[in-house]
TrEMBL record, chains A, B, C, D:
InterPro entries the UniProt entry points to: Bact_transglu_N_2, Papain-like_cys_pep_sf, Transglutaminase-like
Lineage of the organism: Bacteria, Pseudomonadati, Bacteroidota, Cytophagia, Cytophagales
Span of domain Transglutaminase-like: 161-221
Pfam families: Bact_transglu_N_2, Transglut_core
Highest rank taxon of the organism: Bacteria
PANTHER family attached to this UniProt entry: BLL5557 PROTEIN (PTHR33490:SF12), BLR5614 PROTEIN-RELATED (PTHR33490)
Name by which UniProt lists this protein: Transglutaminase family protein
Residue spans crossing the bilayer: none
Length: 283, 283, 283, 283
């Protein structure tokens, strides 16, 4: 499925500032970038960083005090999604996990799985099938946490959300990840562009490692799971911020869009796809 | 400097259990393993995992219920340490940081630097030299936090320690890392064997990235900085646990030793080495 | 119902120390003290304090460094309990609450009801009858929180317990209070002697203000509700500690007992008393 | 000194709602109300509550859905202040404290003194004079916490502020109280009208019990200490909210004023009054 994605970030820069911008679609076997343009106004030399730690494409730029910075990105991306019969999926025991998956078992800044293990076992421990366990987690979050724009901030973590019961997509994702890890299911943060998200914005959800692959889950139910274009994965939002800014600045707004270029888009959600799991950007 | 290190871990295993054991000395340009032996009783097939994420050597093993497990490791290691005149050291701005260092700017499970930035700027922001800034952080921790065995647990984080003012080496390290990152100084967790640590145990401290290299700091002042043999680095203890155990078990004790094999050991500490910084396992 | 209660506290005192001891049975219209003795060894002048703030009888004593202090209390108490048909009980709206009940609507040190309101409304908001709402709260706590001796400490609060899901009687009481207050139901902490508590100890539970009276609830289900002899009420454990000690000391143990002096004790619990509520020390 | 104080609160009421309003000047031996008017528009019957728990005058009113409520208060108050030579002040040991003062030694919702004792002893334990100890606390808060309007909310507590280092008058007061109690100095919350506060608003600060009287301290340094008219005392803001509202509503703004009616007002602050302490509303 082809998507045309675009985003624009505007900042007023009040001191010499370095920005790490993470808005490019990821290049991966399951996601082909057909064309892309990245523009900075005024013109500033940029640098693309690739980390061995996580899947992402950071752009780094250095900006002078007094700059009115405008960053825009546009791309046409062919994002594959793989539909799997969930009845064939089994948990991968720790002993069989690939070494690169193991870090996603451990707690991270916003996903304090070590503090949630008793709760997770009490709520979800009785479900034997791993895929159904993760589905039960996302259903629980959907039913018990209110999606309220502006209710949380960049310091809010899963430990807060489990009690405060309000949040935005980022908080829903962190809570899902923390509960999975508390049950020894590897889970990682996902940021991306999302088709049919309303209002349009960057989106966050999470992937759980089941049956040897990363499957996508979204406890917000705000968008179809096959309408996602991946920007980055990470342990949590600390690894995959849209923008990390070292300096003083004012944000002048963000615009995001994601359009399907094919006519035959059939939305896939956990609600309409009984027994079916989905891996994004997978082949 | 050559060290003979050894450790022994004993567990009673009450359910089918997978263990990730992280007690091997790291292989690195600055640390040569002259000989090492690793034994499991009863005999169980083990597997060595190398992660692209962090510097460490995890051993994974799967153990049956009812096992009385004994894990022992012994090695002779030649650990180099590089002494640097701190007056030549300068902060590396974010724009010049290597991509693999950048993740160590971000908050992690036990090092919530995002919550400590106002405090860090108020306490240490006035110090212009980056090395002296980190030294001021470790001096502050030494003076303001009591080292009390058993006062904290595996959930204790820098955010707790900054207020509770008690902890063990792990907590001292986490607080140092969090304060550095809050000031945009990359910092990472360090675990290792430590010569002259009393009582003998695994040790934790931290490294800060200054002048293009990772320098070692230890706010506990419990051991000389040139008596360290590195096991692992990570963002914090979540990445570098001595043992991550998936299953039910009882611990039957840990013994650790670290002996210098050369006669000419001259202890290096920040207190006795004015103007001198030190990088462990560096050449 | 007559009970013979007794308790003994022993301390080694390492500095000049003031103790506030709160182990006397409360005098109230519903609880008559038939006889009581209070002994301190070595002999020290004591003083009984009555607070206008809360219902309790604090004993204050000042002890010299080096004292081996032994405090013992023994009493025969006639404790009335009033059984009420819960179908007649209605919520008292804030506008009709007595001024002295209103403080028990507000959050306190260990009962952060202000942080739990969304959660409380989501879990219990749909239950219209106020008595059934509180019963649902204590059932939820009983089912979702594990009673584990030694799992918590004097700093543990309802905000911790709602997530950590382990605790002792004090924590069960704090969580019950916090959830009631979050739903605008006045609730207060209760400490006392408890018949058939095993192992014998001081007990804590809570009272909710329903239908114009304080009814007793105990989410631990560890003892019959008509076997309670009241020591004190307060907003939470900060108001009703067994002992508040200002100085350095070592505790040498606590022994507590509570014996029914009548033969016809019929245990009352929420499980065996359908449609029945109970007010302790009430007439 | 005579002050003319006034305040006005406006609310849109969206459901049947009960309000507890705490804006009346307190009647006390040291504070005489010469005249006062209290108006509600539209006219609603009100009730004045006096609590035995705390010093305050709550007004309770019940309002129908759809009301545009306007509450206004105006008074002329003669507020005495007593200036004391601090060199004559001594700490009152726990053994000599009045029973009604003792509750102000214990932790409360927003003043978790039990979590701050190590920190408090490390920072202030070396100061032997109790008055100077409290002055050191307020100086420390003034120097280490930034006053930032809107930086905190109704859930923010002293435990947050000690680390986050930003807050408003309420947070400065809570932190002062918590640090005093951690050092066994009774301390209570104070709300009132404040002359020369800019911008005009209700003000919060705290009182510490020293030398047998409640002395006033204000770590914000925003207003003279002899320009305060007391509304209420309490353990913390949970006891002394300006408005506690049970129902759904929108706030349409608050206006507050405080004018000195005498010409000879000489501002008293800790900075300009060396060796002098002050008790507000005292004779």
């Amino acid at each position: 499925m082809k998507f045309e994605i675009a985003s624009e970030l505007a900042y007023e820069i009040h001191s010499p500032t370095t920005l790490l911008i993470n808005i490019h679609a990821l290049r991966s076997p399951g996601q082909t970038i057909i064309e892309e343009t990245f523009n900075i106004e005024p013109y500033i030399r940029i640098e693309e960083l690739t980390s061995i730690h996580y899947e992402n494409r950071f752009i780094r730029l250095e900006v002078e005090e007094g700059t009115n910075l405008n960053i825009s990105y546009k791309a046409i991306v062919d994002a594959s999604h793989k539909i799997i019969d969930q009845r064939e999926l089994e948990a991968v025991p720790v002993v069989a996990l690939d070494g690169n998956v193991i870090p996603f078992l451990f707690p991270s800044r916003y996903c304090q799985s070590d503090k949630l293990s008793t709760l997770a076992y009490k709520e979800f421990g009785h479900i034997s099938n791993v895929y159904e366990k993760v589905l039960a987690i996302v259903d629980w979050i959907y039913e018990n946490v209110d999606y309220v724009s502006g209710s949380t901030n960049s310091q809010t973590s899963a430990y807060d959300t489990i009690t405060e019961r309000t949040g935005v997509c980022r908080d829903f994702a962190h809570l899902g990840i923390a509960l999975c890890r508390a049950l020894t299911i590897p889970a990682r943060y996902f940021t991306g562009y999302s088709y049919k998200l309303n209002p349009p914005d960057f989106h966050a959800c999470f992937e759980a490692y089941i049956g040897g692959q990363w499957l996508i889950f979204d406890a917000t139910r705000l968008a179809p799971l096959n309408g996602l274009v991946k920007i980055a994965n990470g342990r949590d939002a600390a690894d995959a911020s849209i923008a990390s800014i070292f300096g003083r600045y004012t944000s002048n707004g963000i615009t995001v869009s994601c359009r399907a270029l094919d006519d035959n888009f059939v939305p896939f959600t956990h609600e309409n796809a009984y027994h079916k799991a989905i891996a994004v950007n997978a082949i």
